[in-house]
């Protein structure tokens, strides 16, 4: 299944991946400039990331009718496709955030 | 028991009842042909079995296991009426995505061997339809639902499609609908007519006249 998801993401999720990744980079830059101890900045980042995911769902809904049987015949539902995508993006954002924090404090 | 068992399917669109207490079963080695007038609920029935439509009521058991959504069981593949694969994907990639067990046999078919690197959208309409049908027929699923597979196909390609269905028949069960009833009668081992929301077993072409599917002067 992971092989199938990889192919799906590589072929159909490039645009939304770039959009979400740019949002992550923007907030990483803010954290780097303003510091990692600002609670409001974390709230803002979470809010905007959720907005990014809502936009992703909106974009994918446009293709829902066209791709439904393509996904379903792979035995994969939309919730799983999007769920793993958001999980991957959130993990990447968190990992980069920790990396930046370590970079600023220890390098 | 190793079979696809569908029972008590009821579905309505608003106040209009389409299916009412429909019963169907299919086991490996069997092609069940489903006939019916336009709007009789053939495609709806297949979509309910596949799990893309949630009906008012259904009871679906696959190989003894109760199933809520057919597509999550890994045992059902569904060919919808229209094109459903993104046109920019190559036949090679699609074969890798959908076919594991029978990949060697699929790649030996002329259409795939000669156009393997080609994008599916670059094929002619008939070949694209055939490619999509073959991907489903040769997929790993045990039960294949084919919704109007003969539409858009030239007679020669229709014969090819029937040949491939028969090729995998010992290991798979097929449920096929189409308006070309001759093709259905030819390929099916059993025929069912959906009429007024109910299903009727068809033993002879006369039964199709009796139930008003064919006009009396047809045979």
Structure description:
The complex is a heterodimer of chains A (107) and B (219). Chain A is mainly alpha-helical. In chain A, 88% of the residues lie in helices and 0% in strands. Chain B has 219 residues and is of the alpha/beta class. Chain B is 31% helix and 28% strand. Chain B has helices at 42-50, 91-98, 103-107, 110-114, 125-137, 155-168, 181-187, 205-210, and strands spanning 3-13, 16-27, 31-36, 57-62, 65-66, 76-79, 143-147, 173-177, 190-195, 198-202. Chain B is globular. The termini of chain B are far apart. The chains are: A mainly alpha (107), B alpha/beta (219). The interface between A and B is medium-sized, with 14 and 22 residues.
Low-confidence segments of chain B, given as residue ranges, are none
Secondary-structure element order of chain B, N to C: EEEHEEEHHHHEHEHEEH
Structural class of chain A: mainly alpha
CA radius of gyration of chain B is 17 Å
Q: What's the number of extended β-strand segments of chain B? A: 10
Helix content of chain A: over 70%
Q: Quaternary state, please? A: heterodimer
- Give Rg of chain A in angstroms: 16 Å
Pick out the low-confidence regions of chain A: none
What is the percentage of strand-forming residues of chain A? under 5%
Q: For the terminal residues of chain A, how far apart are their CA atoms? A: 40 Å
Estimate the global geometry of chain B from the Cα principal axes: globular
The largest sheet of chain A is:
none
What value does the average pLDDT of chain A take? 90
Q: Major beta sheet of chain B, specifics? A: 6 strands, mixed
Report strand % of chain B: 25-35%
Determine the structural class of chain B based on helices, strands and strand pairing.
alpha/beta
């Amino acid at each position: 299944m992971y092989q199938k998801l990889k192919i799906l993401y590589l072929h159909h999720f490039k645009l939304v991946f770039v959009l979400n990744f740019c949002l992550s980079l923007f907030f990483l830059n803010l954290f780097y400039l303003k510091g990692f101890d600002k609670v409001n900045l974390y709230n803002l980042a979470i809010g905007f990331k959720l907005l990014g995911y809502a936009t992703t769902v909106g974009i994918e809904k446009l293709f829902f009718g066209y791709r439904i049987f393509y996904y379903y015949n792979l035995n994969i539902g939309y919730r799983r496709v999007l769920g793993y995508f958001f999980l991957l993006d959130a993990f990447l954002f968190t990992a980069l955030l920790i990396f930046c924090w370590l970079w600023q404090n220890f390098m | 028991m190793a079979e696809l068992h569908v029972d008590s399917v009821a579905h309505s669109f608003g106040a209009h009842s389409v299916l009412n207490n429909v019963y169907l079963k299919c086991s490996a080695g069997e092609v069940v042909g489903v006939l019916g007038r336009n709007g009789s609920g053939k495609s709806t029935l297949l979509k309910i079995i596949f799990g893309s439509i949630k009906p008012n009521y259904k009871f679906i058991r696959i190989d003894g296991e109760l199933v809520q959504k057919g597509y999550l069981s890994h045992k059902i593949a569904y060919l919808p009426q229209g094109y459903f694969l993104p046109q920019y994907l190559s036949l090679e990639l699609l074969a890798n995505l959908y076919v594991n067990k029978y990949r060697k046999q699929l790649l030996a078919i002329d259409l795939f061997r000669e156009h393997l690197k080609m994008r599916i959208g670059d094929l002619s309409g008939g070949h694209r339809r055939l490619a999509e049908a073959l991907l489903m027929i040769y997929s790993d699923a045990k039960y294949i639902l084919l919704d109007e597979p003969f539409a858009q196909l030239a007679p020669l390609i229709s014969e090819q499609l029937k040949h491939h269905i028969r090729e995998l028949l010992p290991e798979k069960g097929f449920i096929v609908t189409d308006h070309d009833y001759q093709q259905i009668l030819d390929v099916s081992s059993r025929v069912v007519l959906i009429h007024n929301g109910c299903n009727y077993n068809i033993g002879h072409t006369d039964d199709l006249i009796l139930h008003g599917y064919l006009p009396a002067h047809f045979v």
